[in-house]
Amino acid sequence: MGLDFEELAWRRTSIGEIGLRQLASHLHPGGVFAPRSNDPPGDACNAVLAEVFAESAARVVRFPDPLRHREAGDTIYVARRSPDAGVAAGH
Question: Can you tell me whether residue 77 is helix, strand or coil?
């Protein structure tokens, strides 16, 4: 079983749960955060987003890569803050 370094990064760096909670606090109620990744959807990334946001999903977006003459794909994670969430002070 190999290590998934992207998933480890989500848990152990500022973009982990604490960083995402801070980021979410700056979104308006119902606001969306949508990061992208070169890697396939990861369970740990999905789990952290699900802990922080009311809704979350991962989608693979495929597109032609003219430089490599092949199809490429990125993962787009879409997370929505609860529409009932309060607005942070100063926003």
Answer: strand
Report the predicted TM-score, pTM, of the whole model to 2 decimal places: 0.74
- Angle between helices 43-52 and 5-12 in degrees, nearest 10: 30
One digit per residue, the tens of pLDDT, for the chain of length 91 reads 344 546 555 555 546 778 889 899 999 999 999 988 888 998 888 888 999 999 999 999 999 999 999 999 999 999 999 998 776 545 5
Question: What value, to the nearest 5°, has the Cα angle with vertex 48 and ends 74 and 24?
Answer: 90
E runs forming strands in the chain: 32-33, 36-37, 55-65, 70-80
Half-sphere exposure of 12 (CA within 13 A, CB side): 6
